[in-house]
Amino acid sequence: MGTRAGIRGRWRSLSPLPPPGRLRTLSLATLANTVGLGLWVTGAALYLTRSVGLSPTEVGLGLTVAGLVGLTASVPLGGLADRRDPRALRAVLQLAQAAVAAAYLLVGSFPLFLLVATLDALLVSGNLAVRAALVAAVGGPEGRVHAFATLRAVANLGVAVGAGLAGFALVADTGWAYRLLVLGNVATYLVSAALIMRLPAYAPVRRTARQKPGQALRDGPFLAVAGASAVLSLHWVALTLVLPLWVVTRTDAPPVTVSAVLLVNTLLTVLLAVRLSRGARHALPAAATMRRAGLVLAAGMLLWAATSAVPTPAAIGLLLVATVIYTVGDLWHAGAGAALAYDLAAPDAIGAYQGVDTLLAGLARAAGPAVLTWLILDGGPLGWLALAGLLAGTGLAVPPLTRWALANRCEPSSTSGQPISSST
Questions:
Q1: Staple 327 to which of 69, 268, 272, 301, CB 3.0 to 4.6 Å?
Q2: pLDDT tens digits for 104-125?
Q3: How does DSSP classify residue 415?
């Protein structure tokens, strides 16, 4: 019995799933959703090229255009989450995403692909803002950053599981195998929506004064802090796009090292996301954490730069050590960014402000591939040095920007996020 209890205790300490309750329900919905994401992301390019018959150029162009158009949905749908129950709104969006995901089975030409991909991107972008509003309602002012970190850990686990399952379709390499990936993604949206509806309904925001349209987009101090966080989010492009190309073109490390790097990042995110989010629940401590994140991320960039000048064993070791350092900075940035986006938002417009935060991060990540591939793959180690300087300087700027935002923040004028049903 003692051995069994010890095993259960160790599993609970490693599992990203929280104890039973509302956050557990939301985590299971996220797990289902991200298993589907892992299925789709892993097999999408092959499905669209080998099964549908699109060219790689058409796929890349279509996804880029769709992604940019999709960003326009984040602010209006985030604002809608302030005026409607965010739980019901997210469930509806999940059902809509299931329908659009199924529509990929009907794609047979580039124009139809562009239409479906654009609808998908609009729903994804808007759903991120609605999800942030729902997380704020479920976690409450003191628990929303913890909830955000928990969901990030669960999401990484889900994507990893989905990617592993997608491997069977890639091995089969048939049209039906790729279509099963699409159907699997559809099914996970439906499961996620059903789980979300097990949460209680949350009352919409009650305002004491009429909110001006576009308030979040005109909040200069908030835009400055969110913009700084968006600049720091370029590190994600460096990890997922630039580093793999750097490894195979500028270092003596074998290509399989890329898989090891991404695996280390995923495992550490699952294990450490919640732990490293502690201490950054509110704006000022979060700003200090963001400053620390910028400096640590910069150190990771410098170590990655050094991998081009050392022999194979040292290059492999540096890549892995730098990835551990990078992941700590990544998790500090994620937790602090969530805390700042929540704590600096107008209390009666949480969803709209999360939409603006999502929009700015999306713009940075849209520009990132072109900018960073030119800067680093053409510029070499000096490009990494420039990126490190940008990340460090941005991190150092966040505390004074946050103090400015706090000095200009409106006093709370409403209450929101109260459940109107106690069922789960």
A1: 268
A2: 999 999 999 999 999 999 999 9
A3: B
